[in-house]
Specification:
The protein is of the alpha+beta class. The protein is built from 20 helices and eight strands. The chain folds into two domains: 172 residues; 145 residues, no CATH class. Helix 6 runs parallel beside helix 8, helix 12 runs parallel beside helix 14 and helix 13 packs antiparallel against helix 14. The N terminus is likely disordered.
Length: 450
């Protein structure tokens, strides 16, 4: 028995365009929209009957079956028929077309196409082609054919990105294909809304509106909606220079996508076009910078309480690609009470014993280690140092002592007001002499490790 659990609800309109739905209600009924809530589950027996008939090449449909024929493509693309070939899918579309009213077919085919435009593009293209053919054959003027044909271009995602980027406001984007349906829950809509966010010159004033919309979309689709990570990324990129909203953006991203250092969703980009990929990659880097900055602040405030070290390392937060904090179980629990690092427990590991904490910062070529004891020197290891890797790759590190167990030379020496004997890895002390220690650290880091 087939088990359908797919809702075809008529589209939810955001507050800005709700009035359009109300003023065009009669038109919606003309297009074959039967009411505010039509669900496949309400027609389970009919769906089973239709699919069985199609499989047997029996095309005698009752009037009730004909009314829901145009919902069959949506059922096929929702996962119940993952092994359905493109040829079989096209044959099914042809059958549905022959026995359906043109207006209803065009609307529901296009709706289904846009819901799967990125994830199942070949099938989506078939639906668009049938929509175009039916609109031309019946001389109907429902959707903008130029826009629909652009979706079928040889490099459609990028072409369509450029097309959408020409629009100046959300109402104009909304009207590109005049789709008044629940398209704010489609993959196509994520591209449209994302372009609008990135191009909005008044983004800061409209941030709360956009954030609530993106939050609602991400919450409804949870882990399965590929558009949500793109939309969250557009918010981060658009708001990266507005300090007042960075905490809100970080929380939205962590709640709906996860830590950029260990969540695969941030790196699985095959479902996105090149424009979207660039935005997601930039957003991931920005988010990682914000998280690094917060951890550096917390570490040097709560583990060490050293204002100078905190100020120094915050200058390099953007250059740090990854990091881990090592501390006691008790202090880890205390640190995670800070709302700035809520949900980031994987960034903190615990020692078996001891009172010293440490933060290990990776720059790509080096692992830089600072300790919470004033007397312990800063250590810089080459990331590919075998002895160091044997220490760092242990599942459980007993104490901070192990993080300084690999012998290192002085990273650089000072004499008569100048530096000499530069090393690619080594130790440095936080002691002022002819130069402040910050000057020595900066010279070595920017020459060697960054």
């Amino acid at each position: 028995m087939l088990n359908f659990n797919f809702s075809i609800k008529d589209y939810e309109i955001n507050s800005r365009t709700k009035w359009k739905l109300e003023t065009n209600l009669n038109q919606l009924f003309d297009l074959g929209i039967e009411g505010p809530a039509i669900a496949i589950a309400d027609h389970l027996d009919l769906c089973q009957s239709i699919l069985k008939k199609i499989e047997k090449d029996e095309f005698h449909f009752s009037s009730q079956e004909k009314r829901i024929l145009t919902l069959i493509p949506a059922v096929l693309l929702e996962g119940s028929y993952n092994d359905l070939s493109l040829e079989a899918f096209s044959k099914t579309l042809q059958i549905v077309k022959e026995y359906s009213k043109p207006r209803r077919l065009i609307v529901n085919f296009l709706k289904t196409s846009l819901n799967h435009y990125w994830s199942k593009q070949n099938y989506s293209h078939q639906l668009i082609k049938f929509s175009i053919e039916s609109q031309r054959e019946n001389q109907l003027d429902i959707f903008n054919l130029e826009v629909l044909e652009d979706l079928l271009g040889t490099n459609a995602p990028n072409q369509h990105s450029r097309l959408i980027s020409k629009a100046n406001d959300f109402d104009q984007l909304n009207s590109l294909i005049s789709l008044p349906l629940r398209w704010n829950k489609t993959e196509y809509h994520s591209l449209v809304l994302g372009k609008c966010i990135l191009r909005n010159s008044d983004f800061n004033n409209q941030y709360e509106y956009y954030r609530e919309m993106v939050h609602s979309i991400s919450r409804n689709y949870q882990q399965s909606f590929i558009g949500s990570i793109y939309l969250i990324s557009t918010l981060i990129v658009a708001g990266k220079n507005n300090a007042s909203i960075q905490s809100s953006l970080k929380r939205l991203a962590l709640d709906h996508v996860g830590d950029p250092s260990n969540t695969p969703r941030w790196t699985r980009l095959n479902a996105y076009d090149s424009d979207q990929q660039k935005v997601i990659i930039e957003a991931r880097e920005i988010l990682n910078f914000w998280i690094t900055r917060d951890f550096l602040t917390i570490f040097f405030e709560k583990c060490l309480n050293d204002i100078r070290r905190k100020r120094f390392w915050l200058n390099y937060a953007e250059r740090i690609k990854n990091f881990k904090v090592y501390t006691t179980p008790e202090l880890k629990s205390e640190l995670l009470k800070d709302p700035r690092i809520k949900g980031l427990s994987s960034r903190i590991r615990v020692f078996g014993y001891g009172r010293i904490s440490a933060i290990v910062m990776n720059t790509g070529t080096h692992d830089l280690v600072e300790f919470s004891d004033d007397g312990w020197a800063f250590r810089a290891y080459l990331s590919d140092n075998d002895r160091w890797r044997n220490v760092l790759d242990q599942r459980f590190i007993e104490s901070a002592e192990l993080l300084r167990s690999v012998r290192l030379p002085m990273a650089v020496r000072r004499r008569a007001g100048s530096y000499y004997d530069w090393k690619r890895s080594g130790t440095l002390h936080h002691r002022d002499a002819t130069f402040l220690w910050e000057s020595t650290f900066k010279s070595w880091l920017e020459r060697t490790a960054l």
